[in-house]
Automatic annotation (TrEMBL):
<keyword id="KW-0732">Signal</keyword>
<keyword id="KW-0408">Iron</keyword>
<dbReference type="InterPro" id="IPR009056">
    <property type="entry name" value="Cyt_c-like_dom"/>
</dbReference>
<dbReference type="Pfam" id="PF00034">
    <property type="entry name" value="Cytochrom_C"/>
</dbReference>
<dbReference type="GO" id="GO:0020037">
    <property type="term" value="F:heme binding"/>
</dbReference>
<feature type="domain" description="Cytochrome c">
    <location>
        <begin position="170"/>
        <end position="280"/>
    </location>
</feature>
<dbReference type="GO" id="GO:0009055">
    <property type="term" value="F:electron transfer activity"/>
</dbReference>
<protein>
    <submittedName>
        <fullName>Cytochrome c</fullName>
    </submittedName>
</protein>
<keyword id="KW-0479">Metal-binding</keyword>
<feature type="domain" description="Cytochrome c">
    <location>
        <begin position="26"/>
        <end position="137"/>
    </location>
</feature>
<keyword id="KW-0349">Heme</keyword>
<feature type="signal peptide">
    <location>
        <begin position="1"/>
        <end position="22"/>
    </location>
</feature>
<dbReference type="GO" id="GO:0046872">
    <property type="term" value="F:metal ion binding"/>
</dbReference>
<dbReference type="InterPro" id="IPR036909">
    <property type="entry name" value="Cyt_c-like_dom_sf"/>
</dbReference>
<dbReference type="InterPro" id="IPR051459">
    <property type="entry name" value="Cytochrome_c-type_DH"/>
</dbReference>
Amino acid sequence: MRTFLRVALCIVLAGQGAASWAQDDALLMRGKYLMEGVVACANCHIARDDKGQPLFDKGLSGGMFFDDAAFKAYAPNITPDPETGIGKWTDAQLAKAIREGIRPDGTLIGPPMPVPFYRNLSDSDLAAIIAYLKAQPAIKHQVKKSSYNIPLPPNYGPPVAHVDLPATTNTLKYGEYLANIGHCMDCHTPRNNKGMLVTARLGAGGQVIKWPAGGEAVTPNLTPDESGLKSWSDAQIARAIRDGVDKSGTHLKRIMAFDWYQNIDDSDMKALITYLRSLKPEPFAYAK
Ligand code: HEC
Ligand code: HEC
């Protein structure tokens, strides 16, 4: 029915609207694939019950509380509700918030929003994510303001004018892109005592993550070291990412975003694993 109507309307508007509708559809489909897959903004922004289980019907209406020595942060409502969400934000304002961490009023979005990784989002994927956000049902839900007892920097770097999507044929580069927009290394890299990522040991794990209502876990080592994924097969790595079951058959805690990563398709999974296998082997150590 939907297709029929669309075809009929396309004929009526032939030459004008048809092409741009097809483009809008493609953008939304890409947005859905990313948001309900590797990008997984919902892992932080979805409303949850007091056991930490996602409340899918409440969508991205936020509320999750992050209790850290440096901050008490709440994930805001990012549904299109005009009063309590992002309903009044323009596409350009949303783009600046997501890729640069700067709100329309000029204030900086603080951690744990992984803005440094989102600086890598391509223009086209950013547009797809924004199209998806705007297509979600508006949900009224006032979320508390975060407070930081560390000074936030003025910005996360210079404005990001333009980012190309890497070619999918370049498996390694594309895998790195996916790992960035999936912010894998934000959790799987150790942090120093100031809370900064130790990028020299990218992917080595050892970060203690306290997850609201989801308990606590130390992130495992994703590098190709003996203490990491060296002896894991591709299928075992894919199962951990998608199904949340590790090599020994143990279920992973829900901190790991497998509720979303389960939708990562086979070619993207292959790219991600190629990237993980390219990391410098680093031994695992507790960061704190
Ligand atoms: C690791 C958790 C986490 C992830 C993942 C995450 N966010 Fe956030 N986000 C936050 C927190 C916490 C804040 C509030 C920070 C503050 O109060 O300064 C925030 C703030 C925001 C804001 C500002 C909203 C406002 O009203 O001030 C937007 C927009 C946003 N996030 C969008 C996104 C999008 C889109 C994604 C995925 C591409 C995403 N976030 C992924 C935790 C996260
Ligand atoms: C919000 C933090 C977070 C993000 C983001 C995240 N992970 Fe994880 N991941 C974890 C935690 C915590 C565990 C261990 C859970 C446990 O011990 O039950 C884990 C476990 C894993 C494992 C199992 C390894 C083992 O030795 O058991 C793999 C593989 C993995 N993650 C890969 C990824 C990839 C690839 C991405 C990005 C697409 C990613 N993770 C993003 C927190 C995260």
